[in-house]
Write a structure and sequence with these properties.
Blueprint: E1 2-8, H1 9-17, H2 25-38, E2 42-50, H3 60-66, E3 70-73, H4 89-104, E4 111-115, H5 122-130, E5 134-138, H6 157-164, H7 176-189, H8 195-206, H9 210-222, E6 226-232, E7 240-246, H10 251-257, H11 261-274
Parallel strand pairs: 1-2, 1-4, 2-3, 4-5
Antiparallel strand pairs: 6-7
Helix pairs in contact: 7-8, 7-10, 7-11, 8-9
């Protein structure tokens, strides 16, 4: 059976987060591959929709593209103002593209997979079925709208994440030297290293997902190699921000910095004096 999948990424990501789990691109791709193998389905294409401007989704678009997932960046609500800009934009884009494929390439696919729990897709589901195609919904247990539940047939992303442990456990130690050097370079170049700036740089330069970067930072804080403090900045609306400083008393930190150590020490001393 030839299939195509449409993924409402923000819906399933948020639903899993409510249960305490951050879904990674690697997990989602692995799940779809296992589903296709288990159900003897030829999954020919995966289309995924999300607002990749969200901090939580930084670099995930690149990761998805490398695994042959067709991503669609759909900007939506402005996070810095209550404008409600392009509300439900990803839903609309998904439905329009699914209907276009249904109308122009109906003979290409036998099965349409909808990875979502949003009841707004019921009209799309009905249209696909009216064309004689099979539809399957895969969502997060407890977060699937009741109108979609008859089409789930027991497949549950939450159950899979809980019991299959699909992602190899991330080991922050493997990124320690490079991560310290990245933060050290930021301390040299910038007046201070804001937490958001550190996460973005680590994700990009280490090639890690945001959840993995957060685990890396937690590890460094736990091992006392990184210091978190509040920093005053009159240029900010709230007048302060959270910053990170390398703990230069730690041997692993000084060894990783190497020739950068002296300059990082000078910049850090100046920052403390100016505070």
């Amino acid at each position: 059976m030839k299939a195509i999948a449409f993924v409402d990424y923000e819906n399933i990501w948020t639903s899993l987060l409510e249960h305490g789990y951050e879904l990674t691109p690697e997990q989602l791709v692995q799940y779809l591959q296992l589903y296709a193998k288990r159900s003897n389905t030829d999954l020919q294409a995966v289309y995924l929709y999300a607002n990749f401007d969200r901090e939580e989704f930084w670099r995930t678009q690149t990761t998805f593209e490398k695994t042959n997932v067709f991503t669609r960046h759909v900007f939506s609500k402005n996070n810095f103002a209550s404008t409600g800009l392009r509300r439900n934009a990803a839903d609309l884009e998904l439905m329009l593209e699914a209907q276009e494929i249904l109308l122009t390439r109906a003979s290409t696919f036998d099965l349409f997979l909808l990875i979502t729990g949003d009841g707004d897709f019921l009209s799309l589901l009905r249209k696909i079925r009216a064309w004689g195609k099979e539809v399957k919904v895969i969502g997060v247990g407890g977060s699937v709208h009741h109108s979609l539940q008859p089409y789930c047939e027991g497949d549950d992303l939450l159950e899979w994440v809980l019991h299959e442990n699909p992602e190899v456990e991330y080991q922050p130690e493997q990124d320690l030297t490079q991560g310290i050097q990245i933060i050290g370079t930021l301390q040299i170049r910038l007046p201070y290293v804001a937490s958001t700036k550190a996460r973005a740089a680590l994700a990009e330069l280490l090639g890690r997902s945001i959840p993995q970067v957060k685990e890396f930072i937690r590890y460094m804080l736990r091992e006392n190699m990184l210091i978190e403090k509040e920093h005053s900045d009159r240029n900010l609306k709230i007048g302060k921000t959270k910053i990170y400083l390398l703990n230069l008393q730690q041997k692993k930190v000084t060894e990783a910095l190497g020739p950068m150590l002296e300059e990082v020490t000078q910049r850090q001393s100046k920052l403390m004096l100016d505070a």
